[in-house]
Model the fold of this input.
Amino acid sequence: MPSSLHVDSYRGWSGGQAQSLGLALALAARGEETFFVAQRGSQLESHLKRTYLSWEARELRGLSGLRSVPRLAARFRELHTDIIHIHESASHVAVGVAARLAHKPKIIVTRRTERAVRKGWAGVGKYRLWCDRLICISEALKRRYIEAGLPERMLVVIPDFVDCRHFVPTSPPPADAAGPPTIIVVGQLSADKGHRVLIRAMADVVRRVPEAHLRIVGEGEEGPSLRKHVQTLGLDAHVEFTGFLPDVREAVAQADLFVQPSLWEGLGLAVLEAMAMARPVVVSDAGGLPESVVHDETGLIVPAGDANALVEALVDLLTDRQKANQMGLAGRQRALAHYDRPRIVERIIALYEEVLGELP
Done:
């Protein structure tokens, strides 16, 4: 079985870090030799301290990362791993150079966002120099990299996984349950997540479903302006900001439906988690979201940025409980069939073995 070294230099904690750490833990649980390198002082370092993984923290980002290349290369030589798997963009150059200096021939890179997709050597040059395969989490993201100039042979689509034993269904709220019909959105409060469109839509939703309540889970740079937008529209009694929640399961379980109104989305990990919990979902048609959701089967898909279409979809599922519950159950089955963690881990191991079998 191939041994692997995983690198993630992100300072905070988001779905990407849950994926990189979750993959490393799953590989180690199978008995495969696995090592992790995180950014010093990051939240990921704190999470690693609570695991059984072999790991260390180093300076990986920016100029500090480049200065550490000789020491990093020496460490890579000591570890004797078969594959180096880079899970974000900021450390790619430093880790790529160090890996080549250490004569580590095989580098896998995973990308979950379009933000690093730029044409020319300034954008995709690092993939040509220091990458044997680029994992894109959706076909939509793969198309972006092809448009940026990467050859299709370098690219493979493997979606993010969801742990369907961790995100499990709870009974849907009964029709006469106390409390308002609740919509939930989970994700960073950034412009590309479409929260502003959702808040605008809520003004019309509450006119048609007066008790409707929106719970916004997450934090980010858009937070202050979004709160002001809620106040301007007079929605204070209908919109709640929870901030970051380390475990979203209880909040999702308490909701009647999940919404992801993104203007761009690599795949939508939070959507997969909601599907695994048998919650119906409403998503935009941005990025990879139409790949994870089957329209009229596991949820509803609306045009990105279209507040009116979003209103109709939300009201539809809030007022038709039987339809919503059926979609939730279908979503759980889709999550198990296509995105459950063991399935995705097997695909990544198969990719490791494929790359290692190629001649240099």
Remarks:
- The chain has two domains: 4-161+340-356, 182-338.
- The two ends are 19 Å apart (CA to CA).
- Residues 182-338 form a domain with the Rossmann fold fold (CATH 3.40.50.2000).
